Amino acid sequence: MHEHSAMSKHGLTAALLLALLSLAGCDSVTTESLPASNTTVAAYLGPAPATADVQAFMTNVWENVNPDNRCGACHSAGGQSPQFARRDDINLAYSEAMKIVNLSDPGTSLMVTKVAGGHNCWLDSSSACGAVLTAYLEAWSGTSGSAAASRTIELKAPALKDAGASKTWPADASAFATIVHPLLTQHCASCHDDSAATPQAPFFANSDADSAYEAVKSSGKLDLDNPGNSRLVVRLRDEFHNCWSECSANAQAMEDAIAAFSNGITVAEIDPDWVLSKALRITDGLVASGGERHEANLVALYEFKTGSGATAYDTSGVEPALNLRLSGVEGIDYKWVGGWGIEFIDSKAQGSTAASRKLHDMVKASGEYSIEAWVVPANVTQEGPARIISYSAGLDARNFTLGQTLYNYNFLQRSSTTDGNGEPALSTNDDDEVLQATQQHVVVTYDAVNGRRIYVNGEFTGDTDEQGPGSLADWDDTFAFVLGNEVSGDRTWQGKLRLVAIHNRALTAAQIKQNFEAGVGEKFYLLFSITDIIGMADAYVMFEVSRFDDYSYLFNRPTFVTLDPNTKVEDIPLAGLRIGINGREANVGQAYRNLNVTLNSSQQVLSTLGTVIALEKGPDSDEFFLTFERLGDQSNVVTEAAPLQPGPPADDAPASDIGIRTFGEINASMAAITGVSQTDSNVAATFTTIQQQLPGAENIEGFLSSHQVAVAQLAIEYCNALVDDSSLRSGFFPGVDFGASAATAFDTTAERDAVIDPLLTRVMGTGLSTQPDPAAVKTELNALIDTLAACGGACAADRTATVVKAACAALLGSAVLLVQ
Asked: Between 774-789 and 749-759, two packed helices, what is the crossing angle to 10 degrees?
């Protein structure tokens, strides 16, 4: 049995052929090597840990940071202070570590922020190093009892600053095309053009100025307010990247071009009449990502925070790190998604077999596991199944796979109750169409009591694992972990992954719901201070803000909060809230301008709506603020401009008097003509299958060949039902002897008229002002009967009925019925 036998019935034949072609070499794994990481722990010969907390520190942090290629290179005994990686006395190391950690909020620890800022990172990405260190500290804090086995978020006051005048991008690329673009195409096109020999995203040197303009805007490479801080300038001036002659001179030329472009942009000044909050950038917010997630039993975690490059880092903190190498060209075969994520187009992200072995070891040790992912399928036409997440050796051998077949999720797992390919698969129900081309939280779990289960958006799908639980003893530790494809590269999945986590426990329904409600992606809490307006300390309007896509932000769930829960809030009016960006109110996305509420609680949700605000300069540069028509005793009434009235619509071309019946009309007409009920089981099943293939509009110019095929299928089904029902056919064709052989049933004109005349009367009608020539139609049907009845003495017993069905379907499925 091959992987496809347990899949959806769609595409079964093609899938079986592909499986037959792939039988050879099913256990060979092609892996892409990753840089070696020497994380060998130095032998510890010092005194034993004095307390359980010291033991937790040693197990979760010290053993991971003391190697010489990590913190042990400097922060060991006799080295730099603090000596938290010293190997002579774990108790002293613990004392030193306590000076630079915050176990109530591990991500803010000095140990983390130093490494995340670039200090002695052992990976190619400083942010990935920071995430890994955070995971070490979270594991320590969870073990020591100072935190639960989940992430928590504590609201803190941001630094206060006033909104300032600012510049924003022109609506079109004309100025950019003449000032900055020529410099980019001349010196950067060898890499940053999608048609280059070695293309590198972003493609701001594309020969098409509009495309290059969008790339440079979305990537934040230009600082319009401070051209010298533009990333394009810094790369030349400070990082000596791709200088075409002398780097300092090249950087100045780039800065001059950006300055000339910027000088032509009008500064947006703050309106002095506005009732204005303090201003914030995204980077001023509190990271809200992953809040309250359950992560007590992580084995591997991918949050895709890096934003560029060819590596997806495992930031679980569980060694060895199972980092994944992306194949293909960034920007073409795969793209990093703004706000954390990777879009797979024709790529895969694969780990080494050695690092993948930790999945085998830790899952077999517990006997249960969960695969958790936030996925955005690109479409609902992928099958095979297309591999979303897999731990496998090729097409026909795996430990587990989460895949897609059209509207279904598939869960394949090797066990004693399934085969080496994980079949039969557990799949969501065809009829439910659970999988959709939108962002979904998907968790598949396995344990020895419930077997396999599938959860989508926090809810159990109800699909039962008919195979039941089985042993995982036969799992193979030579397989490789891969995202977006099979290791053999021939089961491509297209879509986005926003988070992937492997747990070596089956998450409970409550834990899955918790992780679903925590959400995904790079999210921030932005606390806009309104203290100066209402005269109340630590008063804010808080938004949850995230990157909606590469071109916009999502502002969600505005909430009034005071950081002192004992503050008494008494009937403060708030109305007409608007979002400002870069010195002006956003042109679109003002979903809260009709807001009119009274503040009377220290934490009060103002609206459950979300709205999208266009990205302008990039996440590091866009400055946001809030304006109010009324807040407290201050007001600024805004009179919205009257919308332009649309002019009279242009006269369309005269509508034709001739059209075609739509799908519902076709079905009803065939039922009325034949006397067969629309609820007949065969008719209803056929109509359900082909309904979307039938005409949906009456315009005859939109008629396609596929429409005619569907009409013919439905006509055949109706005529089958008519002739197979003896009572219906005797009323419709009273003169036809269905017991006679085809060789004798149609050998006279009267016998043929007994078939053709009832069809002409019922299908074509009589007395119509425009209709086909009955004589011509009769000639065509006679020719059809001649052809079908020409079987001599070899006619089958039911040949007469078949000839009548064919004549019926030929007329019922023709333009006679379709055109009206």
From this structure: 120
**Which tokens in the block code for residue 305?**
């925070």
In three-state secondary structure terms, 712 is: helix
> Percent helix, strand and coil across the chain, each rounded to 5?
30, 20, 50
Cβ-Cβ contacts under 8 Å for 523 (sequence gap 6 or more): 287, 288, 289, 339, 544, 545, 546
What region does 576 belong to: left with phi over 0, alpha with psi -120 to 50, or beta? Answer: left
- Give Cα 814 to chain centroid, integer Å: 44
Strands (E), 414-457: 426-427, 440-447, 451-456
pTM of the predicted structure, to 2 decimals: 0.61
Q: Are 398 and 513 in contact (CB under 8 A)?
A: no
pLDDT, position 630: 96
Distance CA 387, CA 487 (A): 9
Cα→Cα distances 815→152, 560, 763, 811, 812, Å = 67, 65, 11, 8, 8
At 467 the pLDDT is 93
Q: Is 197 exposed, middle or buried (0-12, 13-18, 19+ CB in 10 A)?
A: exposed
Q: How far apart are CA 500 and CA 322, in angstroms?
A: 12
Contacts of 766 (CB under 8 A, 6+ apart): none
CA nearest 424: which of 404, 435, 410? 410
Residue 590 structure tokens? 């003002």
pLDDT confidence of residue 12: 33
Dihedral of the alpha carbons of 140, 143, 146, 149, in degrees to the nearest 10: 100
Strands 539-549 and 596-599: unpaired
Task: Check residue 22 and give its pLDDT.
Answer: 37
Q: What angle do CA 40, 42, 48 make, to 5 degrees?
A: 130
Question: What's the number of CA atoms in the CB half-sphere (13 Å) around residue 54?
Answer: 14
Calpha distance 137→295 (Å, rounded): 13
Tell me the per-residue pLDDT of 54-101, one tens digit each, with 9 for 90 and over: 888 998 899 899 888 899 888 988 889 999 999 999 989 898 998 999
DSSP 639-652: -PPPPPPPPPPPPP
**Spatial distance between the Cα atoms of 473 and 363, rounded to a whole number of angstroms:** 10
* CA–CA dist 415, 373 (Å, integer): 22
Interior angle at CA 656, CA 655 and CA 660, nearest 5: 115
Mind listing the pLDDT tens digit for each residue in 185-196? 999 999 999 888
* HSE-up (13 A, CA, CB side) for residue 2: 19
**What residues form DSSP beta bridges with 791?**
none
The two structure tokens encoding residue 204: 């701001």
Report the C-alpha gap between 235 and 247 in whole angstroms: 9
Long-range contacts of 722-728 (CB under 8 A, 24+ apart): 722/674, 722/675, 722/676, 722/805, 722/808, 723/801, 723/804, 723/805, 723/808, 724/801, 725/676, 728/674, 728/675, 728/676
The pair of three-digit structure tokens given for residue 349, joined into one six-digit string? 């992200």
| Model pLDDT, residue 810 | 93
Cβ contacts of 741-747, under 8 Å, gap ≥ 24 = 741/795, 741/797, 741/799, 741/800, 742/788, 742/789, 742/791, 742/795, 742/799, 742/800, 742/802, 742/803, 743/789, 743/791, 743/792, 743/793, 743/795, 745/789, 745/800, 745/803, 746/785, 746/789, 746/800, 746/803
How far apart, in whole angstroms, are the C-alpha atoms of residue 230 and residue 251?
A: 10
Please list the ranges in the chain whose pLDDT falls under 70: 1-42, 143-153, 289-291, 641, 792-793
DSSP states of 38-94: --PPPPP-SPPPSSHHHHHHIIIIIHHH-STTTGGGTSSTTSSSS-TT-SS-HHHHH
CA angle 342, 348, 354 (to 5 degrees): 110
| Cα gap 718→716, rounded to integer Å | 6
**What per-residue confidence (pLDDT) applies to 425?**
96
Identity at 88, one-letter amino acid code: D
523 is written with which tokens?
Answer: 């999210």
